[in-house]
Design a protein that fits this description.
Bound molecules: 4'-deoxy-4'-aminopyridoxal-5'-phosphate
Number of helices: 6
Strand content: 25-35%
Radius of gyration: 19 Å
Order of helices and strands: EEEEEHHEEEEEHEEEEHEHEEEEHE
Distance between the termini: 31 Å
Structural class: alpha+beta
Number of strands: 20
Largest sheet: 5 strands, antiparallel
Strand order of the largest sheet: 2-1-8-7-3
């Protein structure tokens, strides 16, 4: 049997490059506390072509992986530099020269908490970014999930554990049953939280707003990046504050932000269309600038890029 990760033949596991189909963890191990990261490497200059790759925001992703491990009482037996080298080796072993998604996974083994499996699978992906990309403008009907986002005093959403994605999977399955493309969670107080695998930002009267970390969200690297570049580089005001459900309905634009979803425009929520134009003008502007940043075209933010 082969396990296909969108064509990645090789991954890195516990210190060596192996065939991905051989990266196995026993069903007898305590996998419910597994953690992971989602990181992207983009082609320099033109994200829709082939060429040199740069990993975007390696350090914050690597730091978050360590924090997730700490929350679960696990120790990662490799330094950030060693994991970076392992990632480079894995990308090279697969011969990739297009955009690559990197998903380091850590699985506890039965026994001591520092006894873990470390696996680095990679695969290529098609970006939503890039000038005139039709994938970006596709219609996306979202709903407010009837499932609440997990509360941080129960299963902390700030740690990237697989267990948290059970909550996301329920919301996604509900959305699919009801013919929607995705779901937005409210937190246990009833304020807007996040998507099933991305944070949310809404635009009202020329201002961008996004929920705070205390609204049961993952401390998203993309959200942090946008919180810096939207006000500082684009001059658009940003508010980090609790958002009521009705404010989302009344917003001019809304989009998800995350490593996987990049900048994903939302057409409607609970069948209420947002704004007059889709994708909205600020969403487009932000996505275009974000594309330049990940492609290394913004000189001052090249420090966020790590060559493969
Ligand atoms: N929230 C959730 C639940 C996620 O799975 C993700 C994706 N990692 C995000 C937010 C966005 O985080 P980031 O920007 O670090 O990818």
């Amino acid at each position: 049997m082969s396990v296909a990760f969108h064509g990645a033949e090789f991954c890195w596991m516990n210190g060596e490059i192996i065939e991905t189909r051989k990266a196995l963890v026993s069903a007898m191990e305590p996998v419910h506390l597994g953690i992971f990261e989602g990181i992207k490497a983009y082609v320099e200059n033109d994200v829709n072509s082939k060429g040199r790759l740069n990993i975007f925001q390696w350090k914050p992703h690597s730091d978050r992986l360590r924090r997730s491990a700490a929350v679960c009482g696990m120790k990662i037996p490799y330094t950030s530099e060693e994991l970076l080298e392992a990632t480079r080796k894995t990308i090279r072993a697969n011969g990739y020269d297009t955009n690559v998604y990197i998903q380091p996974r850590i699985w506890p083994r039965a026994g001591e908490p520092q006894d873990v499996h470390v696996v680095i699978p990679v695969w290529t992906f098609e970006t939503l970014l890039g000038k005139g990309n039709p994938r970006f403008s596709k219609s996306r009907r979202f709903m407010i999930s009837t499932w609440r986002r997990i509360a941080s005093d129960a299963l902390p959403p700030q740690a990237k554990t697989w267990a948290n994605y059970g909550n996301s999977a329920l919301a996604l399955r509900e959305a699919a049953r009801l013919g929607r493309d995705g779901a937005i969670f409210l937190d246990n107080r009833g304020f807007v939280s996040e998507g099933t695998g991305a944070c949310i930002m809404a635009v009202r009267d020329g201002r961008v707003m996004t929920p705070p970390v205390t609204a049961s969200i993952l401390e998203s690297v993309t959200r942090e990046t946008l919180l810096k570049i939207i006000p500082e580089d684009l001059g658009i005001p940003v508010e980090v504050r609790d958002i009521a459900r009705v404010e989302l309905y009344a917003s001019d634009e809304a989009f998800l932000c995350g490593t996987g979803g990049e900048i994903t425009p939302i057409t409607s929520i609970d069948d209420l269309s947002l704004g007059r134009e889709y994708p909205g003008p600020l969403t487009k502007r932000i996505a275009e600038y974000y594309t330049d940043v990940v492609a290394g075209k913004v000189e001052k933010h090249r420090e966020w890029l790590t060559p493969v």
